[in-house]
Amino acid sequence: MIDTTLIDSIPAMTTDQHVSDYPNTVIHFFADGSLVVDLTKPLPEDLVARMEERALGPTFAVITACNPRGHRLDDRWNRNLTRALREDVERLGVVWEPATGVSLDGTHQEEGVVLSIAKEDARQLARKFAQTAFFWFDGDAVCVVPSD
After folding, report:
1. Residue 129: domain span
2. How many separate domains does the chain show?
3. Is 79 exposed, middle or buried (0-12, 13-18, 19+ CB in 10 A)?
């Protein structure tokens, strides 16, 4: 079990300054990064088919555990939180794959997971890791969903 007590020690922010950056994200799906989706552009026509090939579609969530409550943590803490998130997802027994969100300019990235899960369950998981929001794909579009 990974120690996630750091999350409780991070003060809540009234707003996450970085939430406005969420729509300006490029998501690299799968361990090999073989599917790249730039959220500022139209979604690839084959997105649903590619996700369903891996039993992840037609709806799915993308969640990170990095930088809880919008506070930038060092790489060591973010790696530990990512491991804890993946352990929790494994315990849920749902289909998942690695996913990494990257800023448009490539200067910031956060590891996470893409998983086949109900939207409310995704919200609870994001909330557990003190995330302000998560990405949700409803079969047609990707949207940013607040976790509160």
Report:
1. 23-146
2. 1
3. middle
